[in-house]
Amino acid sequence: MDQSVIHTLKTNYKRELIQKMVDGDTPNVISFLKEMTIRDAVNIIHSAWAAISKVSLRKCWEKGLPMPDSSLSDDEGEKSDFWGSTDKDIQDSARQKIADFLEVDEREVDHHLKMWVDEDANLPTAQEKTDEDTSQEALARGEPTPLRTETGEPPSSAPSTQQALKNLQVVLDFWTSQGKNLEAIQVETQMRKVREIQAKQQKQTELASSS
């Protein structure tokens, strides 16, 4: 709806509201407003809307829905409250409302509008595939899915038993220096299992070389 018609409706509403308050028997404005109901407000809006001339309502569509000049004539004897808004009026009104909303000078409106328009300019137009997506596609093609570490990189080759024993020895020394006997015993148990694996591997190597 055109702002001029809205302004006229508000003016008529204020006039009807004041008239109702004057005609009433309430002692003051506060008492009058407390006694008002939603039905009273709707009735006042109805009266305010009815007070707007038909010619004014037709002419508010002049920009969006052009009509023959004859349809806008005052042959009904009614006085028009509105004669249409120009494109400049509409643009100026919009710019002023944006400036008021942003609490900036009207000259800065174009800058803010450009920021809004370009806000998504650098966003990616396609979503990058996750590891899960890649795995699902590989499964669908019947291909083995590559393992990934927590950092997303393919895992390196497994450490040797000698490397495992060396690292476990560091952990054992740490727990021993902290007086954590239970943790030290657990590490010793792990070292014993690694030595068993190491001995088994050596035996397999000897058998393979002898054959």
UniProtKB/TrEMBL annotation:
Q: Where is the DDE-1 domain?
A: 1-61
Disordered, as annotated region: 65-87, 120-162
GO terms for MF: nucleic acid binding
The record's InterPro entries line, in alphabetical order, gives: DDE_SF_endonuclease_dom
Protein name (database record) = DDE-1 domain-containing protein
Query: What organism, scientifically named, is this protein from?
Result: Bugula neritina
Q: What is the lineage of its organism?
A: Eukaryota, Metazoa, Spiralia, Lophotrochozoa, Bryozoa
